[in-house]
Amino acid sequence: MKPNSILGRYLTKQIVVNFLAVLIMVVGIIMLFEVVELLRRTSGRYDVSFWFVLKMAFTKLPKSAEMVFPFVVMIAAMATFWKLSKSNEFVIMRAAGVSIWGFLLPVMVTTFIIGMINVGLINPVSANLNDLYETMNYRLKTRNPNAVLFSDQGLWIREAIDNDNVMVLQAKSLRQEKKDLLLRDVTIIEMDRRSQPIRRIEAFAGTLEKGYFDFKDVRIFKAGKPTEVVNSLKYKTVLTADRIKENFVEPESISFWDLPQTIHFYEMSGFSALRHQMRYLSLLVSPFMLCAMVLVAAVFALRPNNRRGGIMFLIVGGIATGFTVYFLSQLVYAFGINGDIPIWMAVSAPAIITALISISILLHLEDG
User: Fold this and answer.
1) Tens digit of each residue's pLDDT (9 = 90 or more) over 70-93
2) Residue 162 and residue 192: Cα distance in Å, rounded?
3) What is the pLDDT of residue 248?
4) Which CATH architecture has domain 149-248?
5) CA 230 – CA 247 distance, rounded (Å)
6) Do 35 and 53 contact (CB within 8 A), yes or no?
7) Is the dihedral of CA 82, 87, 89, 92 positive or negative?
8) CB within 8 A of 51, min separation 6: which ones?
9) FRET label pair with 283: which of 101, 111, 113, 200, CA 20 to 30 Å apart?
10) What is the pTM assigned to this prediction?
């Protein structure tokens, strides 16, 4: 059955309506719990308004909703299939010569499109809102309504100067005031490809400008030469405030479209980009994982008659299977993060195995 046929459009409408209904319900529950938790944290804080609490809960909402997104798709698919089975529409479609695979095709195509919209459009918004949440959370902790702190533990970062030399920068404190990024007690060590020091630069303070660091009260050390003291030094760099900030945020807080550049930067600078690669690949695979969850829903909810088990089997079996898939996918993901298995296997194996098992069960139940 073609997805753009009359029957295909009908199934597409059903899955979209149920998906939106389940998503709104789940997001509302998450929002409620987030607000309650933040009210508990801010109890007795007269400097925190209820509007601030609502904004914090809203900015954290996309990240929380992303965790349950596969369950939302599975529940929406289960509701769609169960409704069609209960009203005998599925039986009529089968009697009209539509196979179960032709029946599932429009639903799978719609689900895949939803997954692509989630990755390409919703994920960048979610990453920006999560970044805003981290800022608001820090302001809540410090009681400073204008605070923006990248790290109170200092900064360690490495950058490739050219093909033969690299530099390692360490700053004991780092903070942003308005649009300026301020560093204190900065040390830069330049090294060659054999990790032998070339020179050492120490500065009392510095700011990051476009294309360079502007250091103040600088001392430059070179082997066999006297210490050079200068009032200011402009040090070239390809680093930006956003790039430095990415050292202190989780890969989940980086937009899907920015991840390839971040991975390339880390690899060129000698840092491990494994976690970012895992995140990028998992986002690429996520539409296929959603389709696998639709197949899981079909196993429990799509049946030619309603006499083979009740609603409790549908609910308990589907939810239990969904949690099992989620737990195993997180377990395999952890193996990939630790480097025990290839990253492409860690992100794709759960979707592939879930889809193959579901297809095998559907073949057994429906075709023989």
Assistant:
1) 999 999 999 898 888 888 887 788
2) 10
3) 56
4) Sandwich (2.60)
5) 30
6) yes
7) positive
8) none
9) 101
10) 0.74
